[in-house]
Amino acid sequence: MISRQCLAAVFTLIAGTAANGQATERQVVEVKSHSFGMSWALFAACDDNGDDRLDVFEASASFLGVDATEPGSFRKLDLDADGKLHWDEFDARFRASLYSAKSFSVRVSRAVQKPIDPTGSDTVESREEIFVRLADSNHDTRISQRELLDFADKAELEPAPDFALLDKDLSGQLSAAEFAALLGSLPNGGETLIRRYQSDPKTLPREYQRADLSRDGTIDGAELTEALAAIDPSLRRWSDRILKDADYSGNGRLDRAEIQRAVRSNDALRNMALPTETVGGAETQNK
């Protein structure tokens, strides 16, 4: 079974998914605060062959002060003496370095995926975004006349809005800006709609919706595999294991509650936000 910290770190990375570009040369990355998401991201960026562990050559290329020709320096990191560094051993070095030197530096072989805190306020949707999502049933970022009428019905908006008056550019579709002109006339300011939306168990948090390719409000095994691959292709192999550990209902899909439970399974994740004085919580320089 994957540890709670590791499981939460993976979902943190999925929330901030962006393709992990390959660096043309190793860079030194310096980090001045710990988070499970950043620890996992750094470990993956040091793992050249994507086998979820660092051998002595990968470790010597990644860690300052570790020399492949001096086995003793590697043994200090290899806590279980199995000849490989696993994530927990990497994380132990990360924490120890922060405690002793107030910073942690490694040389990475690929770009570091920036994790975000899915429980943080920076991921909260605006009211306008929520209303557009509720109206845009086909997820094409535009509102058709049929979608507008369906939205008006949900919102109990009477009389029904005049599509032609809202469609200022005569495109036959409403942009978010054109649609926003309608929102001031919503009963109760749209509060009833918002409460219904936010309490709906089929509503995935915004930061995970890009992984929901079928738009059914859940993430199945294939979608999870694709989300992991977008972080790093080597993570594909973890899909079945992650799904098994996070899928508390056993239906083969991850819903809103299961994802949030996985993310919040460790109190330390509340402090995942990285310092704002450095880009992505890390400073890089070519070496």
Helix and strand succession?
Answer: HEHHHHEHHHHHEHHEHE
State the domain count: 2
Q: How much helix is in the residues?
A: 25-40%
Number of helices: 13
| Helical/strand content category | mainly alpha
Which regions are unreliable across 5 or more consecutive residues at pLDDT < 50?
17-24, 117-123, 266-287
Mean pLDDT over the full residue set: 76
> End-to-end distance, in Å?
38 Å
Beta-sheet strand percentage? Answer: 5-15%
Give the tally of β-strands: 5
Biggest sheet, spatial arrangement of strands: 2-1-5
Overall geometry comes to elongated
Work out the radius of gyration.
Answer: 23 Å
Tell me about the largest β-sheet: 3 strands, antiparallel
SSE arrangement:
Elements: H1 4-15, E1 22-31, H2 36-46, H3 56-62, H4 71-75, H5 87-101, E2 104-110, H6 127-135, H7 145-154, H8 163-166, H9 176-180, H10 191-199, E3 219-220, H11 221-231, H12 239-246, E4 253-254, H13 256-263, E5 282-286
Helix pairs in contact: 1-2, 2-5
Give a brief outline of the structure:
The chain has 287 residues and is mainly alpha-helical. The protein is built from 13 helices and five strands.
Description:
The structure is a single chain. The protein is mostly helical and 287 residues long. The chain folds into 2 domains: 1-118 and 217-287, no CATH class; 121-199, Recoverin, domain 1, CATH 1.10.238. The protein has 13 helices and 5 strands. It has helices at 4-15, 36-46, 56-62, 71-75, 87-101, 127-135, 145-154, 163-166, 176-180, 191-199, 221-231, 239-246, 256-263; strands spanning 22-31, 104-110, 219-220, 253-254, 282-286. The longest helix has 15 residues, at 87-101. The two termini are 38 Å apart.
